[in-house]
Specification:
Spore Coat Polysaccharide Biosynthesis Protein SpsA, Chain A; 258 residues; 9-stranded mixed sheet; 44% helix; 9 strands; alpha/beta
Length: 258
């Protein structure tokens, strides 16, 4: 039986986290029929009295919800707290304000999680109701732009731990920085362009100017990895060309000798 922990980070956004947990209410019944164990962990850093209201909301829900308070330490630290406290097979970052779509393909999702050999499963979604398509796999590397909707993506917990989770010195571009490292070491991904969630938007990730310094640092800090991978694919193509040419030559010589 596979397990998933949904990590929902929130701070002073009671309406947003309410919409999130209401949208996931359908999960528990479907998960039980599909042989999945799902827990939703709400990591809350709200001020009082909002924190009390969030805790009451979570505790009042039917389903496997858990409430955890964390003193404000940044979104990356909240993500990492949820990951480190988890014992599930898969981690799903679905933040306060993000909503599971009414027609989300949950049975397909659970079936993939139990069958796949990949470390990452990437769905697509909507951004404030506007459909966002997942690019072709060839465009997902290098992740110099954050093409991946992190809230529509599930990652094996052991893979998260392998890469040290999210860097806590990043406040905005922490997901893109993680993808660079993760896919730079050729972690496998299933890419399914079927909408799973609606992304609330309007947060710090929409601040293009504010995100720019971290994006530059993200590329600079991983420059060696990006540089080395830049030459991998030409090398593979060249080796393939030489191999096929050798085989082609050997076939012609064998044909002539008959």
């Amino acid at each position: 039986m596979s397990s998933v922990d949904i990590i929902s980070v929130t701070r002073n956004n009671l309406d947003g986290i309410r919409r999130t947990v209401e949208s996931t209410a359908k999960i528990w019944k479907i998960a039980a029929t599909e042989g999945m164990t799902v827990t939703q962990r709400v990591i809350d850093s709200s001020d009082q009295p909002v924190a009390s209201e969030v805790a009451e909301l979570v505790h009042s829900r039917d389903g496997n919800y858990q409430y955890v308070f964390q003193s404000p330490s940044g979104i990356s630290a909240a993500f990492n707290m949820g990951i480190n406290d988890s014992t599930a097979d898969w981690i799903w970052m679905l933040n306060g304000g993000d909503e599971l779509l009414p027609n989300a393909p949950l049975r397909l999702l659970f079936d993939i999680l139990q069958r796949t050999g990949s470390e990452v499963v990437i769905f697509s979604g909507s951004n404030r109701g506007i459909r966002q398509h997942t690019p072709a796999l060839a465009k997902l590397w290098p992740i110099v732009y954050c093409w991946i909707m992190h809230n529509a993506t599930l990652v094996r917990r052991e893979t998260m731990l392998e890469f040290g989770n999210y860097r806590e010195d990043f406040k905005i571009a922490m997901d893109a920085e993680l993808w660079i490292r993760m896919f730079g070491y050729y972690k496998r991904a299933d890419v399914i362009d079927i909408p799973l969630i609606n992304f609330e938007g309007g947060g710090i990730s929409d601040d293009v100017l504010g995100r720019a310094p971290e994006s530059v640092r993200m590329l600079w800090d991983n420059k060696r990895l990006l540089y080395s991978r830049m030459f991998d694919y030409p090398k593979i193509c060249w080796e393939a060309w030489r191999s096929y040419r050798r085989n082609e030559k050997a076939l012609r010589e064998r044909t002539r000798s008959r």
